[in-house]
């Protein structure tokens, strides 16, 4: 069984840090991990629990958590709470290096104890919470050493999840508790093949990179909250009564520690401006007795003492303890949550998230990171500008009064905040991010992952998933579906989850890719599947695993997957390419258009059977190791309306990369995909004009999904001829010339020689070698490298290439489209010379426009 070892540097049995650990660890516990948690008593000295045995702390935690700690650390000479306090003061705060040799000695001994404990427990994953905060730099250094040694010894990958809830610049920076930038005495995060770092928000990530430039594997992972309104029920109905709060008064809730940095005095001043309102302060009154006494005296002086309840410690949000009230119970009775904290003390501001998640409005001070975490996301609340005024004034009080007395306004605020909360830090969002980085293992028998990028495909999704579910000739345990949501705003994701719930015998995973573009989504899904496939239990190391691309607007035949799988297994090729077709019924009454499409697809079938062809996102498979050798789906960017967007030709470019590495591509003609006719209907005018994907020398791979219903009329004879010519001009360089340009050895294959004829095959081989030498090109893989020679070879050999197509496909293929007028005037003896100038078109883009982009068919 897999074992997850968690270590919290907080030294508290149930804090916000521990609660966030539990939320994340729950995801792994559900997959079968055994979860062990070290509360950090033997790390952090200021909580007074150093070496103290655990007592009843386990009662505060879920039953699937085992409280644990590193064994025998008390045997290390010189290591105790006094040592940790001294190192913090002298090395971290004062910069005195006198103790450094002793820190190194203790760190080495601690690392040995950590390693021994992990070995005995059989640890497979480690979660570090707040480990960068330098409460005990000897332990932090020991942890880094143990991670490197343990990871190397067991050949583990990135098995450490290292999350910092607080950092030096977020924790009491006014008193420089942890020194000052650049923090020379503190073990900085370091690049390790075993650690993935997480910050709570973009500002923390940016500041970390300022501190440690070049730090890799650092991502943003917000705290997680279940967005569900807190309700009054049998368990908490007596909350107000038990605390002496009238049932009908507005109640402000303050759910923070009672320490000076939290600025609870602001709440008392606000309460004085809100007659009739009450304030509940949830926090340990014994943590800072002087502060509690000061606040009590202030409440007396302001005349609000009878409306303030210091209710003591409540169990944290999302954690229930029998016989105790929780923060969620308080929020069920609260009218609003107050968070008038100091400017530079807070970072994430969990009480705000807890309020949003519970369906409770909030009010806040404009602390340093408020806009980073909440304000810039659009969350609604009264915000006290504490840089302009330290205490609430009448204007701010009026804004709060309107919020807590106007039910319609309050309901509107709750609705907006809840929707945003679900999208920004809802449990599902965080779970999906964790699954992307630490994907769950797949079944031992699974051999294929079907990756389905989706964006607002609610209208098509049921049928698409239905065709994937109803595959014949292959058991459902042999394949799975990875649906990649690319920021859908319709019901796509809900439909997918409902389908998964109704069909538990098909493994269907939903992940989210925030960067817009099908290339990004396809890569995310394939990376996710590839990583999971390496965790298949008890699998044969000789088995091949396949990543399969599908398209959410197409339909796959019943034997699509089984035929593709069989072709890949028998050929041992790196890529398998499907056959594509249209439903003829959709083109009833449009015979000219149907004829142009069918001629193109007939050409495709012949050339793909020879050369293997290139993959199309509508349906192809790639063997996992070949995918990784090629570096995965490569994301290209281009400008559109002054903004960079990802290029859509990732499937084509990926196939070229694989072929250029010498890996084979096979054609699986019995693995068939029905193309959605909208690809034709909504681009036909541009196909006719030869600008379906751009013009003027610029290719624009754009989304051609319909904005309005298509007008389905047939083409005129002239339009049909024009559409065919652009289609075949797009097809011939890509599917007849490019394969042999990338792999000249194909021209020695018997079947290819039979297709071209021995003489033409030999001349093509010589001409490719001449052009390669003339252009000084050593790699035809990049798009700027292969287009020019492909165009040149087309013009030089067009008549013979079309003769081959007429011979092997049919006489109706006809003659090559007319030459550009400029080339028609060139003397025959200088034709190849001027073709070169035309195709390189350094300024004009004429060749791009001539060949057009009729590849929609």
TrEMBL record:
One of its GO terms (molecular function) is glycosyltransferase activity. Residues 240-378 form the Glycosyl transferase family domain. Its EC number is 2.4.-.-. It comes from the Bacteria. InterPro entries: Glyco_trans_1 (IPR001296), Glyco_trans_2-like (IPR001173), Glycosyltransf_2 (IPR050834), Nucleotide-diphossugar_trans (IPR029044). This is Glycosyltransferase. The keyword Glycosyltransferase applies. Keywords: Glycosyltransferase, Transferase. Pfam families: Glycos_transf_1, Glycos_transf_2. Residues 449-611 form the Glycosyltransferase 2-like domain.
């Amino acid at each position: 069984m897999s074992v997850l070892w968690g270590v919290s540097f907080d030294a508290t049995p149930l804090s916000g840090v521990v609660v966030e650990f539990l939320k994340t660890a729950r995801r792994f516990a559900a997959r079968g991990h055994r979860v062990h948690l070290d509360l950090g008593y033997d790390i952090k000295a200021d909580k007074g629990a150093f070496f103290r045995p655990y007592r009843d702390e386990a009662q505060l935690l879920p039953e699937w958590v085992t409280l644990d700690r590193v064994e025998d650390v008390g045997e290390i000479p010189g290591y105790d709470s006094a040592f940790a306090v001294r190192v913090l003061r002298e090395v971290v705060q004062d910069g005195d290096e006198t103790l450094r040799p002793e820190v190194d000695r203790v760190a080495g001994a601690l690392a040995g104890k950590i390693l021994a404990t992990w070995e005995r427990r059989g640890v497979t994953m480690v979660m570090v919470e707040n480990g960068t905060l330098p409460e005990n730099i000897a332990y932090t250094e020991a942890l880094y050493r143990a991670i490197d040694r343990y990871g190397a010894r067991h050949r583990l990958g990135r098995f450490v999840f290292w999350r910092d809830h607080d950092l030096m610049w977020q924790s009491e920076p006014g008193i420089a508790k942890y020194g000052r930038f650049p923090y020379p005495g503190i073990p900085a995060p370091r690049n390790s093949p075993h650690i993935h770092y997480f910050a709570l928000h973009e500002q923390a990530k940016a500041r970390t990179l300022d501190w440690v430039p070049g730090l890799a594997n650092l991502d943003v992972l917000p705290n997680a909250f279940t967005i569900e309104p807190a309700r009054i029920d049998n368990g908490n109905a007596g909350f107000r009564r038990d605390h002496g709060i009238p049932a009908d008064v507005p109640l402000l809730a303050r759910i923070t520690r009672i320490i000076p940095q939290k600025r609870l005095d602001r709440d008392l001043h606000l309460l004085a401006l809100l007659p009739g309102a009450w304030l509940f302060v949830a926090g340990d009154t014994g943590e800072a007795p002087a502060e509690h006494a000061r606040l009590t005296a202030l409440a007396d002086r302001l005349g609000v003492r009878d409306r303030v309840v210091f209710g003591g410690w409540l169990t944290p949000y999302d954690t229930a303890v029998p016989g105790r009230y929780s923060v969620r119970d308080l929020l069920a009775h609260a009218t609003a949550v107050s968070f008038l904290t100091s400017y530079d003390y807070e970072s994430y501001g969990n009480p705000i998230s807890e309020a949003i998640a519970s369906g409770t409005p909030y009010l806040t001070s404009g602390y340093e990171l408020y806009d980073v975490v909440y304000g810039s996301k659009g969350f609604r609340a009264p915000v006290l500008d504490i840089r302009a005024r330290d205490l609430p004034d009448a204007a701010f009080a009026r804004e709060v009064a309107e919020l807590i007395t106007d039910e319609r306004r309050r309901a509107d605020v709750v609705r907006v905040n809840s929707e945003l909360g679900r999208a920004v830090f809802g449990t599902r969002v965080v779970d999906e991010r964790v699954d992307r980085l630490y994907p769950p293992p797949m079944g031992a028998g699974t051999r294929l992952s079907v990756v389905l990028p989706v964006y607002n495909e609610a209208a098509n999704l049921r049928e698409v998933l239905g065709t994937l579910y109803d595959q014949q000739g292959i058991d459902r345990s042999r394949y799975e579906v990875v649906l990649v949501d690319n920021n859908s705003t319709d019901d796509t994701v809900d439909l997918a989850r409902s389908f998964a719930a109704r069909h538990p015998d098909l493994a269907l995973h939903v992940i989210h890719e925030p960067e817009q573009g099908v290339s990004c989504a396809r890569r995310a899904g394939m990376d996710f599947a590839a990583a999971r496939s390496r965790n298949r239990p008890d699998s044969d190391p000789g088995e091949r695993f396949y990543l399969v691309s599908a398209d959410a607007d197409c339909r796959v035949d019943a034997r699509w997957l089984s035929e593709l799988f069989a072709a890949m297994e028998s050929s041992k090729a790196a890529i398998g390419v499907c056959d594509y077709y249209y439903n003829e019924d959709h083109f009833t009454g449009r015979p000219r258009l149907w004829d142009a499409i069918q001629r193109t697809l007939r050409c495709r079938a012949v050339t793909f059977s020879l050369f293997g062809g290139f993959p199309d996102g509508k349906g192809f498979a790639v063997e996992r190791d070949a995918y990784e050798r090629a570096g995965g789906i490569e994301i290209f960017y281009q400008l559109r309306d002054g903004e960079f967007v990802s290029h859509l030709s990732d499937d084509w470019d990926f196939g070229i990369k694989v072929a250029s590495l010498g890996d084979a591509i096979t054609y699986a003609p019995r693995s068939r995909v029905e193309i959605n006719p909208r690809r034709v209907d909504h681009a036909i005018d541009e196909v006719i004009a030869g600008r379906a994907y751009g013009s003027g020398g610029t290719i624009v791979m754009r989304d051609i999904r319909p904005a309005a219903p298509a007008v389905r009329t047939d083409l005129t004879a002239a339009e049909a001829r024009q559409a065919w010519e652009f289609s075949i001009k797009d097809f011939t360089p890509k599917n007849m010339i490019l394969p042999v340009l990338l792999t000249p050895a194909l021209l020695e294959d018997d079947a290819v020689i039979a297709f071209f004829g021995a003489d033409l095959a030999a001349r093509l081989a010589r001409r490719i070698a001449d052009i390669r030498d003339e252009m000084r090109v050593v790699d035809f893989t990049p798009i700027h490298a292969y287009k020019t020679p492909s165009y040149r070879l087309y013009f030089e050999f067009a008549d013979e290439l079309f003769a081959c197509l007429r011979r092997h496909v049919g006489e109706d293929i006809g003659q090559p489209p007319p030459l550009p007028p400029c080339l028609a005037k060139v003397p025959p003896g200088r034709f190849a010379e001027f073709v070169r100038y035309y195709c390189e078109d350094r300024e004009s883009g004429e060749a791009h426009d001539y060949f057009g982009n009729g590849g929609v068919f």
